[in-house]
Give the backbone structure.
Amino acid sequence: MTYIDVILPLPLKATFTYAVDDVMAHKVKRGCRVLVPLGNKKHYTAIVDRIHDEKPEGYEVKYAFALLEEQPVVLPQQLKLWEWIADYYMCAEGDVYHAAVPAGLKLEFKPKVETHVRLTPAFRSEDNLQHLLDNFDKRAAKQQELLLSYLQLSDFLEGNPHEVSKQDLLALHNTSANVFNALVEKGVLEAYPFVVSRLQDKTQEQTGLKPLNHNQQRALDEIKRCFAERSVCLLYGVTSSGKTEIYTHLIEETIRQGKQVLYLLPEIALTTQITDRLKKVFGSNIGIYHSKFSDPERVEIWNKQLSDEPYLIILGARSSVFLPYQQLGLVIVDEEHESSYKQQDPAPRYHARNTALMLAAMYGAKTLLGTATPSVESWYNATEAGKYGLVVLKERYKEIQLPEILPVDIKELHRKKMMSGHLSLILKEKMVEALGRKEQVILFQNRRGFAPMIECHDCGWVPKCVHCDVSLTYHKHTSQLVCHYCGYTTPVPHACPECGSMELRDRGFGTEKVEDEIKAMFPEARVVRMDLDTTRSKTAYERMIKDFEKGKTDILIGTQMVSKGLDFDHVHLVGILNADTMLNYPDFRAYERAYQLMAQVAGRAGRKGERGLVVLQTGHVDYPIINHVRKNDFETMVSEQLAERQLCRFPPYCRLVYIYIKHRDKQLTDAMTSVMTSLLVKVFGSERVNGPMQPAVARVHSLYIGMIMLKIEANASMAQARKLLLQVQRQLSQDPRYKSIQVYYDVDPV
């Protein structure tokens, strides 16, 4: 008897064993999809992980229902990566399967089918067709016109006919289906189903590689020398130094060697510009993959990567690490410092940069980490630990100067009543000048919505989410209060429910309020807001960015989306409206993140032509970080951060694991968090365990959250630490009080 161990798309730690009949036993392979029963009524699409003849003991083995295809849809390297992710990030392989594989592959996938049109066999000879056209009934003129339209669309008379859809034919001729049906009844045309691709591989004129300047060529040569000794290289290149062109030359060399490239980006918004640039060089060899694509589109890309003609280059967000790769030779992680590479919820809580490093290692591929503001950990790995090579590119392309940073003390301006609204006088003046020169402006505010909260002026009441311990954000355009954690919405009250006062005022400001203010201040300007609320559709990003590139937008207001690698020719002024919101965050990475965000958004200014200007509004102009940003002094900033983290035992000098305990009962949550903390102290020692703690938001989706922070020395065994953690969890699960409590882990949190 043949048995298979399968992975189910469920948060289950173990694989499940099923029997297969003799017919299936001869066809099934590791990585194939099989349909299996679970329980009495449910069935799932499972992935075969192992084939063997070891009968399980102690229970009756069920049979797999069906083998969905005879060729694997998941390659051995992918299964190996799944196993590593599940082990390292302390989740189930089923969690990884659920996240990695498009939903369409968890069921029977249906291809996209259109109705196409062709001549019937009787009229595919020129003589019969000519006779038909010469002898058409004069009362059937519309049928004759439709037939001629088909011949025109299909190029049939040219001797090389191509596919014609019924929809396109009727649209070209602007006629009814009745005319078409009449030709079908006469046996002239026939309709048939045709499977079409959902992938839009638009043809684009290719221009070839651009030559590198001296500084870029030097950096490229250093990267190659680094790859001769190490598998990972960090490219630290200032904004607008031409890193993308260096990537392009490396990609060309890799695909010339017959290998594939994975090009990771942190934001979907970035794929639009980078895609256009790469397609000019590599044409249809590029596939795009991210969460804004429909599931059928993602299935088609997955299947293409398994085919004999896969994309040579995959450009995508973090989920593209899960695609099948047959000959991976190079991984590029652009903007490697970005926290959006880390998946937060649900599991697997993986970091795409670190997962990409492991993926590349499994294929023996090289990895290039590129950024203008390296993460502290990557900088440490390149400069002190010696794990990565380091290449530095400090000159902007065409020797353009880095933008001038002009700090503005808005605290002092408010005190002197010299500032109304959210724009300082100097920023307004510079905007007037820029718009007068027909230049574009970017304004950065790292909060969406109209205001972070509203408050009763008389009693101080603030509306809170009914499910989460957070204040509701005011969205003026929809006249709603919204929870940015669970999505709960409620109309804005007309009066305070506590005291009846009509004096409800908004506190703070987000991108929506900035948009209103700018439109009132510059009524003639074309203003666009780019944040999570305005970019929910797949095409929204692309439309906004292309409009801005074409000069259809004068002022772009946005959250951190506008800070990441976008390249615009006519932006010479950038306004950072409130730097303090980035600093006042209870996290040991707040200083690093604030520097990266300000430096990156500043880098959007003056990328072409004359030197750009960044007006940086802050209430703390004397903070050291403001001076670091003004001088573009990354190395001083990072050396100070490393010294501080070594003293306080934070990454990169230790590894962090956050343990979360969740339940609807607050007392039960607190009790288990306290007990688990005590047990962990006995196992790991008090110097490694911080807790019990409350996260910044202590209730989400009506679940109370307890938290424990575990610090593991960098040279200690993470595998042993994970083993001990799971032992403690199993010990607690024996107590019936805690069986219903959810426990999960966030390894290497960001």
Notes: The chain has five domains: 2-106, 121-187, 214-399, 404-450+509-643, 654-747. Residues 404-450+509-643 form a domain with the Rossmann fold fold (CATH 3.40.50.300).
